[in-house]
Design goal:
Blueprint: E1 9-10, E2 16-18, H1 23-33, E3 37-42, E4 45-51, H2 52-60, H3 71-74, E5 81-83, H4 88-98, E6 102-107, E7 110-116, H5 117-125
Parallel strand pairs: 2-3, 5-6
Antiparallel strand pairs: 1-7, 3-4, 6-7
Length: 130
């Protein structure tokens, strides 16, 4: 089976926002870049992840003011991770069990990438059909 590292987005390509960024600004960044998540930082350290789902559940559905809510208040932390040598099937199982759409990818305990449900769909779509 294919290892997670083959389909992960490497850390160098992460789009990050400082922890005091307001939710509306973060949502606009995701919209403009056509991405479903941002990593939240405290200086250079990644402290969490905010996703489009977090925006819907923790801002819109809660009736919270998007311009007065920081990403730190609504981010998911700590980031659930999977080791880069694990398989895409392992990632799929972990996402399904945890009800997550994004997993951090680690190498020796350090965050080196991210994989999403969308990445798994791309992989499955490109499998040869019988």
């Amino acid at each position: 089976m294919v290892p997670v590292k083959s389909f992960m987005i490497p850390r160098e390509k992460f789009v990050t926002v400082p922890r005091d960024t307001d939710a509306q600004t973060a949502a606009r960044i995701m919209r403009d870049r056509e991405i479903g998540s941002l990593f939240v930082t405290n200086d250079r350290e990644i402290i969490g992840i905010i996703t489009d789902t977090d925006m819907v559940r923790r801002v819109v559905a809660a009736g919270t003011a998007a311009t007065q809510t920081t990403v730190e208040q609504i981010m998911s932390a700590p980031i659930m991770t999977i080791e880069e040598s694990k398989t895409l099937l392992d990632a799929n199982d972990l996402m399904a069990q945890s009800h997550l759409r994004h997993l951090g990818v680690t190498r020796e305990g350090k965050l080196v990438g991210v994989i999403s449900v969308r990445d798994l769909v791309v992989f499955l779509t490109n499998l040869p059909r019988k």
